[in-house]
Amino acid sequence: MKRLVILGAGTAGTIMANLLRRRLLRSEWAITIIDRDNDHYYQPGFLFIPFGFYKRADIVKPRSKFLPRGVEFIVSEVDRIDPAANEVVFQDGSRIAYDYLIVATGADIVPSETPGMLDGWRDTIHDFYTPDGAEALAEKLKAFPGGRIVIHVNETPIKCPVAPLEFAFFCDWCLRRHHRRDKIDLVYVTPLPGAFTKPVASKALGKLLEEKRIEMVTDFNAERIDAAARRIVGYDGREVPYDLLVTVPTNMGSEMIERSGLGNEFRFLPTEPNTLRSKKHERIFAIGDATDLPTSKAGSVAHFQAEILAENVVRAIEGRPLEPAFDGHSNCFVEAGKGKAILIDFNYDVEPLPGRFPIPVLGPMPLLKPSRINHWGKLAFRWIYWHVLLPGRPIPFVPSRMRMAGKRRPAEESGGGAK
Amino acid sequence: MAQKQYGTATVEVDAEGFMADFLQWTRDVAAAIAKEEGIAELTAAHWKVIDYIHKEFKENGQVPSIRKLNKSGVISTKELYDLFPGGPAKKAAKISGMKKPEGCV
Asked: Strand A184-189 relative to strand A215-217: parallel, antiparallel, unpaired?
């Protein structure tokens, strides 16, 4: 009996378990998936908790519920991968051998990477990238008397790169509804030169920040945080004062990757961008946030990668050449407040552009423009996530590879830089 | 694609002045780009960074991140900001003749 091991039963790992169980003969291949706990969080839901739209119970289910029959689920801490022996080593020293390994261990926030950040942690410095952080922030916002809320991105890349923008838009919207907006200044601090990495979307999203009177501080790299004086200190000497700091700390891959000696400086696994195989080890593949690929760290990316990776694992097993089909396709709904959302769709080479999605001209969803239907799309996505995405079923009209049909490039902006 | 004259050398550059063809890069071109970026003279410390960027690019096909420069022990992030004031990642890449670093999305 041969064995495929998947590390991580999050979005990417769960989809892979479902897809590959259908493709690999049960009489020949055992599939084992390993995670440290049995709580599967719908991560896009974290954003909604600080504003009281969701509670924790609305976004968590047992991981085991989404794994198919015929897949062994082990809840245990993994110490490291031993690629020379083709084995995974658990923290108690026991080992499990693999013929092929899929690394789907994701990314997490690491506030300790920024000096001073932990001094004010969950006091005047909060996050919304963890369930505990999102809940603590909900309490904090309820009791916040007024002042300066700074929304801060510490370092790129981060998971769901638009989430901090959405947080800013939601903040503005909620404060307005409660007639408290005049008492509170909103500031958006980013290491990027604009609201987003790619020029056309950066312009559209930057304009939205301006309309909502959210001050933007760009090209800002935090050297440290002076929690006692409540200010972020930049490497270039600039300082940003805050009363409440909502930060997205540096995101890094699993410590297990580092212990295995397989990671880059962010503990992400160097991965071939089109085949999703490890750059160093033939029997190791990677998917989702755990890779070092220059596309978004987002559930949609894991979904688009999954079908291609399943095909490539089967090809590797059969000794055929891999299909270099992954194009960096990413797709996300950006909540803009006031019951509207923006939809963006892009890949390694083509930045987010205006147009219609998923069907050219008809849509029904407009790209790069706030609309109600996109907001409904985002809300409906929670159901789609559990019932269509995790089981590895195709989403109608949305192929793994990006399509240009239905998109147009604004003539005056083409070739321009991120401003 | 625009062209730019640095001394006697003509190089291809993109809209933001990043070199399109690394084969056209020379140490003199680097010094000229540095001047444009407000760095009067490239010191030994600057060259240590530039050489490391080239080494990384040869080995991995990528411009190293600030975090990697820091972690590799080549230079601390604080010193890097002192050497390339403003935006060290972009400035160092530009002077080294690299394409604009992909801001990860």
From this structure: parallel
pLDDT at A161 over 80: yes
pLDDT score of B104: 47
Give yes or no for B87 touching A (CB within 8 A).
yes
ipTM of the complex: 0.82
Mean pLDDT score, A8-29: 98
Best mutation site among A114, A236, A327, A345 for testing chain B: the one with the most B CBs within 10 Å?
A: A236
Domain containing B16 equals 2-95
What's the start-to-end Cα distance of chain B, in Å?
25
Structural domains in chain A plus CATH codes? 2-106+254-318 (3.50.50.60), 110-250 (3.50.50.60), 331-413 (no CATH)
Strands (E), A259-399: 284-286, 330-337, 340-346, 355-359, 363-367
Please give the Cα distance from B16 to B32 (Å, whole number).
Answer: 15
Most confident listed range (A16-25, A294-303, A399-408) = A16-25
pLDDT tens profile B65-80: 888 998 888 899 999 9
